[in-house]
Amino acid sequence: MEERVYIAVTGIQHYFGPQVFQLNQIIVLTKEPDNAHDAEAIRAEIPSIGKVGYVANSPHTVPRGCRSAGRIYDLFEQSIAGVVRFILKDTVIVELLPDVKEIVMIQKLLESKSNVIVVWEPHGSIMSEDVETRNGRP
């Protein structure tokens, strides 16, 4: 059985706060080799929102049982997926998903008078868009 690897996303208060996170939500972790503050910086993103924090990389910010950005940096090329397992006041604990190679957003066309496309996002929010505006036709 493969060992589960957990990381902590910190700095969330500088972006959207903890309210944008939900349990079992997909997070994308991407290396930032040109980061001026940390050569091993890994940013955390929610696909539909954008940057929501960074993987903890300091002894003061890495919770017990989690790995630092430096410890996971060589586990993947550029990006890796993760899933939210715990949400705390200012930290989110994420389990890495090394076998996930692609994240696909699901689109569904509703049969209704308003011709609306509903896009389901992994974190549970729903965005809609008028089909006529999007395609120029119903």
TrEMBL record:
<dbReference type="Pfam" id="PF08797">
    <property type="entry name" value="HIRAN"/>
</dbReference>
<keyword id="KW-0378">Hydrolase</keyword>
<protein>
    <recommendedName>
        <fullName>HIRAN domain-containing protein</fullName>
    </recommendedName>
</protein>
<keyword id="KW-0479">Metal-binding</keyword>
<dbReference type="GO" id="GO:0008270">
    <property type="term" value="F:zinc ion binding"/>
</dbReference>
<dbReference type="GO" id="GO:0003676">
    <property type="term" value="F:nucleic acid binding"/>
</dbReference>
<dbReference type="InterPro" id="IPR014905">
    <property type="entry name" value="HIRAN"/>
</dbReference>
<feature type="domain" description="HIRAN">
    <location>
        <begin position="5"/>
        <end position="57"/>
    </location>
</feature>
<dbReference type="GO" id="GO:0016818">
    <property type="term" value="F:hydrolase activity, acting on acid anhydrides, in phosphorus-containing anhydrides"/>
</dbReference>
